[in-house]
Design a protein that fits this description.
The structure is a single chain. With 168 residues, the chain is an alpha/beta fold. The chain has a single domain, classed as P-loop containing nucleotide triphosphate hydrolases (Rossmann fold), CATH 3.40.50.300. It is globular and about 45 Å long. The N and C termini lie close together (10 Å). Bound molecules: shikimate-3-phosphate. The site of shikimate-3-phosphate (S3P) has 9 residues, from loops.
Length: 168
């Protein structure tokens, strides 16, 4: 019972991770929060002060700490599956679930939350649009290796129950 929730920024990983973990009495973790706690800095500070490549090292390190844990849902960062061998590591260590979300929905959500996200905070509308399209296309190669792909407009509290039922 180790579940890794994957998807683009704004896909609703933390939202559904919290609901599903509560329903199934699993622990819930957000990988960004694990990184922030370890580093004693916010994600934005880590990007600003250390750069993305150090962030990716910290992210991998935080992910690997889940090797010895069980009974959890981990909401990963949007980029987590796309660096090092993180995707195959997650597939060998648990069950990966991709929350697949239409571009228009991501755009709408990210436009509202843009300021808090270091990778996109400086973009105007056009740049944000282009960034999401390009990154999503590139990242779907990784996301699509997930054990389960859930369309976000069909997702419900029962979605996770159906996935769990395949394993018990
Ligand atoms: C990132 C997504 C963020 C966070 C960091 C990088 C990305 O996580 O890990 O800002 O590369 O897409 P969320 O997807 O939880 O927002």
């Amino acid at each position: 019972m180790k579940f890794f929730l994957l998807g683009f920024m704004g896909a609703g990983k933390s939202h559904w991770g919290r609901i599903w973990s509560h329903q199934h009495e699993l622990d819930f973790f957000d990988l960004d929060h694990v990184i922030e706690k370890e580093a004693g800095k916010t994600i934005a500070q880590i990007f600003d002060e250390m750069g993305e490549s150090i962030f990716r090292e910290l992210e991998k390190h935080a992910l690997h700490q889940f090797e010895g844990r069980d009974h959890f849902i981990l909401s990963c960062g949007g980029g987590t599956p796309c660096f090092f061998n993180n995707m195959s590591w997650m597939n060998s260590n648990g069950i990966t679930i991709y929350l697949k979300t239409p571009i228009e929905v991501l755009k709408e959500r990210l436009r509202r939350e843009q300021m808090h996200r270091p990778l996109i905070s400086s973009f105007n509308e056009e740049q944000l649009d282009l960034y999401i399209r390009r990154k999503l296309e590139e990242r779907e190669n990784y996301y699509n290796k997930s054990a389960f792909i859930v369309e976000s407009d069909l997702v419900s509290p029962n979605t996770f129950t159906e996935i769990v039922n395949r394993y018990v």
